[in-house]
Amino acid sequence: MGISWSKSSQAFARAKQSIPGGVNSPARAFTAVEMDPLFIERGTGAYLYDLDGNQYIDYVNSWGPMILGYNHPHVLAALKDQLAKGSSFGAPTEVETELAELIKEFCPAIDKVRMVNSGTEATMSAIRLARGYTGRDKIVKIEGCYHGHADSLLVEAGSGVATLGIKGSPGVTSNTACETIVVPFNDQPAVEQVFTEYGSEIAALILEPVTGNMGVIAPQTAYLKFLRSITKKYQSLLIFDEVMTGFRLARGGAQELYNIAADLTTFGKIIGGGMPVGAFAGKKEIMDYIAPDGPVYQAGTLSGNPMAMQAGLATLKELNDSQKYQKLAELSQQLAAGIEKNIAELDFPAHLSKVGSMFTLFFSKEEVKNYHDVQNCRLDLFASYFKLMLAQGIYLPPSQFEANFISLALSKADLEKTIAANYQALKQLRT
Ligand code: PLP
Predict the structure, then answer these.
(1) Topology of the domain comprising 73-319
(2) Does the active-site annotation cover 223?
(3) What residues flank ligand 1, with Cβ below 6 Å?
(4) Cα 283 to the chain's mean position, in Å?
(5) The whole model's pTM is what?
(6) pLDDT tens-digit map of 3-32
(7) Domain ranges across the chain
(8) Looking at residue 215, what DSSP letter applies?
(9) Is 414 annotated in the active site?
(10) Where N6-(pyridoxal phosphate)lysine occurs along the chain (predicted)?
């Protein structure tokens, strides 16, 4: 194969001298696959190029935002225009309202939107608002769901925490952690038991409606409807963390796909079109509890900054077209069918889990329903598979506990190349 990653390795060695672990987010380290991370020089369409000049077909999409591919001309033009006017003013701009209006149009359960700078800020603020609004302290979260790195939510979290094998995190006090009750995904009796015992103390239940941060797992039939009805019964809020699924699974995210209206929704990734952004949103009576109208404080120097708003608006405008979702579905279907055929032909102990344009190849023969099942996957096989794919020019998330993303920039030929590489990798692992 003879691919060289020497410049990336040199850059990583240098970075480690000045940046903890050489990365500014642990998910970027290739710890679980036991190699140095690639340093990226540029991206175009569906492709990434590393410092060594290698080209990759990309399924990471900057962990979700780049649904249109890199350097989409409309996003680029919007950013250039805004840059010429100024990148941040710390004062209201009309583009913030325009983006909020488009989000409302896509998601009928939403009356008001507050912009922040990351998914972490979005979920942290949504939790504070839920506590302030209900006057209750406890929250229920689902094992293996990741909602960013705010203290209350860093309990049994997936993604980087799971990849590194960290259970909670030092620095999160036991007083904070004990207000977070954790239940397994897809387990109605566990939720029922928690609400029977603590219902009057629970401010909110938060989840990824389709999980991405323990790999892609679909909610079982009726699970989300059950969560909607039990939270209503106990007057707790239902928070859908759609940082990953928002504007990806459908124009209106998982709420449109499963026809459920959450009380609060958190966004990130796609609504920033590749710029740092997040948002929390919901019904008027709840959102009006936020300062300056309400007593729950939340703020941000760069919140709603015009560069991020323009990139997000340009991205959502592109997605305001059902044909785009049709195309995503066709691309996803083509890839899934090819990989499933390979698995069957090689009788390989793996299965593909897919919802919309998100998928994970689990190294487990049995269907994966929750975090426990993911932990029982063959992580060693995943690591070898990852390296074999990378050597063939396919860039995947470097962990079994992550989602792969399809972008609109992918061509059928890219998918065919990916399917062929998948066959070679699985065949090599089989022997
Ligand atoms: N919520 C979900 C579902 C996520 O996938 C992520 C990040 O991957 C977050 C929240 C945190 O977002 P950010 O990394 O922008 O803080």
Answers:
(1) Aspartate Aminotransferase; domain 2 (3.40.640)
(2) no
(3) 63, 118-120, 123, 146-148, 208, 212-213, 241, 243-244, 268, 278
(4) 23
(5) 0.96
(6) 999 999 999 999 999 999 999 999 999 999
(7) 6-71+322-430, 73-319
(8) B
(9) no
(10) 269
